[in-house]
Design a protein that fits this description.
single chain, mainly beta, outer membrane lipoprotein receptor (LolB), chain A, 14-stranded mixed beta sheet, 3 helices
Length: 226
C-alpha cells in the first residue's frame, strides 16, 4: 500500500485523487513546566514560530488495521500559507503552497495538480502550522491524557465539510519543557495517518523561491495554473 500524501481537505489521487489531510506540526521544545500547559504551548508555538524546517516519517493505518510502508521527507514553511512538503522515499512527491495556490507534483507520473489555496487552508490541519494566528477560530482544542509515553492534545475542526475528523498531537517531556513528537490525522474514510518528527529548525531564513513551483516541461497539469 502506498502511503498517501496529506495536505488540505478537498482531495486529489495519485493517478486520480491524492486525498489530502495534512497536519504537519513540527517537533520543537515548548516552554511550560507541566503537561497541563500543552494547549498554551501550542498557542505559543503558533504565535512565535513564523518559519520552520523539519524531517518527518509517515505511515497510514487503514480501517482494517493494515499499516503502509513508511514514507519520509522534509517539510518547510513560512506562515501564513507558504509551505513545501516533500516526500523523498519510497517515492518522490512535492506539495507546495505559494500563498495562493496548492501544487501537488507526482514525479513518477510527471503530473501536477493545482488548486486555489484560499480559505480551505484555515479549515485543514495545515492551518495548525502554516496558517494564520487564529487557530481556535477553526479548531476546538482539548487535552487528551497520556499514551505510549506521550502527552496528547486533540484539535477538532469546527467546520463540518472537512475530509478529516480529528488531529491528535503528541508531546514528549524534555526536562522542564515539552517537545512535539507525533501527530495522528483521523480522516472521514476510517484511515489514520501517523507522523513522527525530528527536531525542528525554528525561525530559519528560507529563500523565497522555496515556495515557488513551476510545472516541469512536459508535465500533465490538472486544474487552474493561472
Amino acid at each position: 500500500m502506498k502511503t498517501k500524501s496529506i495536505w488540505t481537505g478537498a482531495g486529489f489521487a495519485r493517478s486520480a485523487v491524492v486525498r489530502v489531510l495534512l497536519g504537519a506540526l513540527a517537533s520543537m521544545a515548548f516552554a511550560g513546566a507541566a503537561y497541563a500547559a500543552a494547549a498554551d504551548d501550542l498557542r505559543e508555538f503558533v504565535k512565535g514560530t513564523r518559519s520552520g524546517k523539519v524531517a518527518f516519517t509517515q505511515t497510514v493505518v487503514n480501517r482494517n488495521g493494515k499499516v503502509s510502508n513508511p514514507a519520509s521527507g522534509t517539510f518547510q514553511f513560512v506562515r501564513p500559507g507558504k509551505f513545501r512538503w516533500v516526500y523523498e522515499k519510497p517515492y518522490e512527491q512535492w506539495i507546495v503552497g505559494d500563498g495562493e495556490k496548492l501544487w501537488i507534483f507526482d514525479k513518477d507520473l510527471n503530473q501536477v495538480t493545482v488548486r486555489k489555496l484560499g480559505a480551505s487552508l484555515g479549515q485543514s490541519p495545515a492551518a495548525i502550522l502554516a496558517g494564520s494566528d487564529d487557530l481556535e477560530k477553526n479548531f476546538t482544542l482539548k487535552e487528551a491524557g497520556t499514551q505510549d509515553g506521550l502527552s496528547w492534545l486533540e484539535a477538532t475542526p469546527k467546520a463540518k465539510d472537512t475530509s478529516f475528523e480529528l488531529v491528535r498531537i503528541g508531546f514528549k517531556s524534555e526536562g522542564s519543557s515539552h517537545a512535539l513528537a507525533a501527530m495522528e490525522l483521523h480522516d472521514t474514510f476510517g484511515q489514520t495517518s501517523v507522523l513522527k518528527f525530528g527536531a525542528i529548525e525554528r525561525n530559519p531564513t528560507l529563500a523565497a523561491d522555496t515556495f515557488r513551483f513551476t510545472p516541469p516541461k512536459g508535465a500533465d497539469v490538472i486544474g487552474e495554473s493561472k
